[in-house]
């Protein structure tokens, strides 16, 4: 462990979050991400609960104020105070007003993993009070609507799981998990000449998605926007339709959290528990591969599991009711040379199989270590009674920040900080990890 004290790490995290606060929400970073992002805000609320619980609740309420009438929580809520063109793709590109039921605020039309109910429950548990009970009462119907959106409008495969319609919806934007379905998306890298990418102005282009990747991202958004973001019109015509292990594991965890919230606010927890059980069963049935012993995304356009072995395959461990057979398989995968989880880790946990030929230690989600996926796996290890492995991963996370600061992501061999500095979810989840020492 780098000789940086707990008090120093805590101070760094608090200063980072305070510097990124924007009157009613927290920006992920001051450089690359100047708006409000959906799952970032959920992770940020978890950390804020330890130091500023009033801000934690405001973070969540601000995000859900931009919820669409169909229940979706958009992955970006745009700050109207920023000049046009300051971020790409910005509100003028998304044109969310074309959709029926979009909010007055300018937003994207996509979603991100539904980690919000679990975050709300953790905020309440970290700082319980009458005010937190009232906050849960306000959020509960919105969280239920979000779940109904995923399990209803987004069950495009008809098997009880939610489908993502863009790699950005997974949160792991350019993971190798998306290479196979993305290769079928018609696009020309030259299309990017019409736009100015914001990300490569603030980060090394060698660490970011390529122009061809971005051209395909834009093509998928354009297809969805042409359908006015109406999921019922997608059928099999949309160029990207995938069932993601992380999104659906988060969906199941959300139902468990909602059962707890329901008990606090006077609602019936039973239906949430029943839905959680159905989601876990569907996840095992549709996305678990007994041959590889891990979970894979399912490409609905081809009906095949995507073979890449990424950190997505480990994420179902966050489900408290994951069957013992799959728990053992996920642990074996996590502890294999592909990911290197152990009680004494000599390298950070990567986001992609480090033995794969397409492993890239510097490029966004194609190898680097990320605090949020580490934190989710850490919580899963604790839920499944593996304190030895949880302790090893916790020490690794603390080491990352001690060496590299609150960066967006980290080199999976050296632990050097990569991407945006002063990154909010890294700071926030650091606070949560420190508190559970």
From TrEMBL:
One of its GO terms (molecular function) is Glc3Man9GlcNAc2 oligosaccharide glucosidase activity. Belongs to the glycosyl hydrolase 63 family. It comes from Micromonospora globispora. Residues 33-426 form the Mannosylglycerate hydrolase MGH1-like glycoside hydrolase domain. InterPro entries: 6-hairpin_glycosidase_sf, 6hp_glycosidase-like_sf, Glycoside_hydrolase_63, MGH1-like_GH. Keywords: Glycosidase, Hydrolase. One of its GO terms (biological process) is oligosaccharide metabolic process. This is Mannosylglycerate hydrolase MGH1-like glycoside hydrolase domain-containing protein.
């Amino acid at each position: 462990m780098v000789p940086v004290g707990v008090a120093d790490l805590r101070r760094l995290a608090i200063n980072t979050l305070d510097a990124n606060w924007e009157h009613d929400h927290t920006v992920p970073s001051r450089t690359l991400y100047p708006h409000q992002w959906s799952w970032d805000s959920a992770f940020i609320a978890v950390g804020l609960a330890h130091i500023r619980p009033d801000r934690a609740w405001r973070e969540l309420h601000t995000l859900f104020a931009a919820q669409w009438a169909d229940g979706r929580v958009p992955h970006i809520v745009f700050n109207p105070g920023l000049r046009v063109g300051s971020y790409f793709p910005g509100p003028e590109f998304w044109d969310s007003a074309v959709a029926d039921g979009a909010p007055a605020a300018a937003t994207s039309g996509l979603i991100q993993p539904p980690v919000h109910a679990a975050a709300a429950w953790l905020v309440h548990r970290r700082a319980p009070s009458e005010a937190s009970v009232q906050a849960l009462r306000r959020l509960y119907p919105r969280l239920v609507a979000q779940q109904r959106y995923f399990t209803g409008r987004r069950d495009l495969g008809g098997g009880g799981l939610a489908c993502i319609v863009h790699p950005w919806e997974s949160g792991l934007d350019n993971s190798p998990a998306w290479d196979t379905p993305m290769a079928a998306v018609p696009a020309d890298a030259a299309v990017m000449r019409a736009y100015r990418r914001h990300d490569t102005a603030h980060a090394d282009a060698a660490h970011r998605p390529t122009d061809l990747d971005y051209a395909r991202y834009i093509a998928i958004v354009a297809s969805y926007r042409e359908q006015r973001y109406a999921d019922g019109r997608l059928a099999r015509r949309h160029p990207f339709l995938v069932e993601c292990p992380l999104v659906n594991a988060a969906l199941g965890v959300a139902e468990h959290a909602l059962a707890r919230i329901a008990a606090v606010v006077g609602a019936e927890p039973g239906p949430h528990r029943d839905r959680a059980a159905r989601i876990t069963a569907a996840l095992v049935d549709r996305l678990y591969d007994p041959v590889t012993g891990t979970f894979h995304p399912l490409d609905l356009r081809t009906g095949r599991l995507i073979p890449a072995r990424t950190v997505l395959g480990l994420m179902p461990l966050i489900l408290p009711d994951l069957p013992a057979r799959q728990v053992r398989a996920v642990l074996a995968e996590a502890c294999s040379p592909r990911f290197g989880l152990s009680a004494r880790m000599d390298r950070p946990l990567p986001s992609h199989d480090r033995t794969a030929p397409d492993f890239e230690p510097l490029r966004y989600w194609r190898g680097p270590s990320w605090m949020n996926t580490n934190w989710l796996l850490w919580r899963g290890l604790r839920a499944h009674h593996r304190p030895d492995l949880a302790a090893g991963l916790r020490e690794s996370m603390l080491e990352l920040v001690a060496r590299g600061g609150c960066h967006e992501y980290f080199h999976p061999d050296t632990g050097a900080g990569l991407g945006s500095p002063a990154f909010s979810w890294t700071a926030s989840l650091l606070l949560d990890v420190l508190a559970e020492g």
